[in-house]
Amino acid sequence: MATSVSTKALTPRRAIMLAAVMSFVGAMTVTGVAKTISKDIVDPFTLQNGSLVILAALIAAIAWNLITWYYGIPSSSSHAIIGAVAGAAIAASGFGALHYSGFLKIIQALIISPILAFAVGFIFYAIIKAIFKNNQNLTKTNNRFRKVQIVTAAFQAYSHGTNDAQKAMGIITMALIANGYTNSTDIATWVQVSCAVAMGLGTAVGGWKIIKTVGGKIMKIRPVNGVAADLTGASVILGASFIGLPVSTTHVITSSILGVGSSHRLRGVKWGTAKTMVITWFITLPISASIAAISYFVLHMIFGDIG
């Protein structure tokens, strides 16, 4: 929603409500990413002390997400939860607990997706510039794009739900397996609905701090920029969702804006803000893994071997 708010295509209240609704719809559409999270990082059926591992992972991911949210830094919740699960599993059973083929596939998707989003955003905006280069009435053109941006922002929010909400579904399914409530990695309907509702509510309650950073501290976004960034980000995220790969929606959306901004005017991008984001992205996985490992050891000291 950051791009549509910064261009005044939507008011903050309407943007956040639209994001909440469309994220809910997206979360109810597919479950491929959830299945990947539940089985490709570690084997939930053989995971030692699975209940403690999952609890430690959740504590670590939530802690890191709240810290970065408080400071308005668009960190990756995907990196946080994936790093946290890996860190807690390693603490419980050593490095052999990881499914290296699946884990590396996920890491590759997390690395490639923002690079792809930057490149696609750069090219897509270059095409738009070429089409409208002779347009004399820039104000009228931007007003038209501002209306289109309401649709593209909704598309972006929908794609967000198809990927981000799935990660919570995967973690809950792992918890159900670890505690013997299910013997399948298929996502239960009540899990899908509860995660979709939580995604919508979380977006409605806590989105404003990140909107201010993404919408105003990377570049000055015009409606035409916003449309290009929205379509780029949504396309990359949806593509990943439909092949079952978790990606960082934060990385993808921000990289889309950076790609569009670089194509528009390289000096118009606030690279200092971008640098802070990139540093946060790189440190998120190891920090969340470390917090999860520490959390696991503390929980194990308190509760011993369970689940």
Category from helices, strands and their pairing: mainly alpha
Binned, the helix content reads over 70%
Mean pLDDT: 85
Number of helical elements? 12
First-last Cα distance? 41 Å
Question: What is the number of independent domains?
Answer: 1
**Multimeric state:** single chain
Number of strands: 0
Major sheet: none
Instruction: Write down the secondary-structure element order.
Output: HHHHHHHHHHHH
Anisotropy-based shape: elongated
Description:
With 307 residues, the protein is an all-alpha fold. The chain contains twelve helices and no strands. Helix 2 runs antiparallel to helix 8 and helix 4 runs antiparallel to helix 5 (77-93). The mean pLDDT is 85.
Spell out the blueprint of helices and strands:
Layout: H1 2-6, H2 12-27, H3 32-40, H4 50-70, H5 77-93, H6 100-131, H7 138-178, H8 189-206, H9 208-216, H10 223-242, H11 249-264, H12 271-303
